[in-house]
């Protein structure tokens, strides 16, 4: 603590005021002389009494000195009455004696001068201080007015020493406040002091609080602790007295104490201070909690630990089916002039495959660790793929319904280019909605708990934003399927489209109800399995019904031709 300056002396504001008042009293009274031109207050017993009065004025004060410079008191070379509380004689006992009789404090460091090793006559602060200010006062007595001018000592003249060990009377750590004295000619006379015993004072080395929460009798050395700021924070220990490292280092929020068996979950300040600058200093760090844990006592996970084996199996199946879907797209492009493929509009077949592949990619991203960006990307992939696939099915069914309704009256043609325009409008509407949704939502990283109490990443706010529109499109598709159920079509394509739409409606309603009833399943792995199954029940069955039927028809035709050729 030596060399540090206290940051708050307000604890002793009353004691400072008393000492300054005594200094001002002596300064103002020194001008009044007796017949031998000696100050009326220049009285040995009066000075002893003032020193004793200051010492007794507060329980916080250990002792007080009224010390004069060379030959400033009754032509004595030294005079320095010192009053202090003598614990050997009782709690309220005051001992008073003249330090000048026992020590040459003007030339040799003594009890008084040793309070600050820089205090000597030749660099003492007030030898070079400005002259005290003047104060005028009008006094009326017996009808006569007097204008009296006296000096007073501004409070800014008062000085504090650094903490020192008193080897003379207290045998303890102290700190001293000094106020100067002047005569009527502004000549320095000496000083008035009081001593504070620091054993009853606490040292707070922790960081400064945001609000003023000063503990009674606490000195602040803010920010001088040795705690590892990255993982621990300093907490002041009350009752430690005037000692360094009077604190302990507790783990910050998001960290836990490394010794799980320790009764007290903190590091003692003295231990951390001793290790500072040494190789083992880093061992006084707390350990970080697992991801998602705001607070923890050990390394136990807070976030749900995903079943990666299960997810890997599902991802592998998804990627195999995705590769098959891409192969079907290549097949359609390669055999686009085939009569069976051409009858089903190869362009729309390609679009359906592309949309299904996008839906499969949504499952692929679901395998990865959840984040806001992935949540948004999954929504974009799923809904874009859905509108491409089922929008194409809807328009193909709508074309059949229109042709069947008007074919008796006039020829009705709905070419692929016309349907592509309608599909483009549907796609633009969905993309605009997704862009507005992405821009308008905060997409904060939401956390919810599983049924077992573990935390998990929750879905984005308003996830599946196009869900209502998709359900509306599917019900329109159901209505169209009912309209064309008796309509003849090439290779029974309308029948397979109807089965796809019925299957999708049933699956979406079932999964939606289960999510509501089971609170989104309360388990990330179960939710991923349901997403996998629902996507493949919808998309994979769609591919199977539309493409496998055509492949089987082509195979049957090839078999018939081979039979006739024989």
Automatic annotation (TrEMBL):
Pfam families: 7tm_3, GPR158_179_EC. It comes from Paramuricea clavata. This is Probable G- coupled receptor CG31760. One of its GO terms (molecular function) is G protein-coupled receptor activity. Gene3D superfamilies: PAS domain. Keywords: Cell membrane, Cell projection, Disulfide bond, G-protein coupled receptor, Glycoprotein, Membrane, Postsynaptic cell membrane, Receptor, Signal, Synapse, Transducer, Transmembrane, Transmembrane helix. The keyword Membrane applies. One of its GO terms (cellular component) is neuron projection. It comes from the Eukaryota. It is a multi-pass membrane protein. InterPro entries: GPCR_3, GPCR_3_C, GPR158/179, GPR158_179_extracellular. The keyword Lyase does not apply. PROSITE patterns: G_PROTEIN_RECEP_F3_4. Belongs to the G-protein coupled receptor 3 family. It is found in: Cell projection, Neuron projection; Postsynaptic cell membrane.
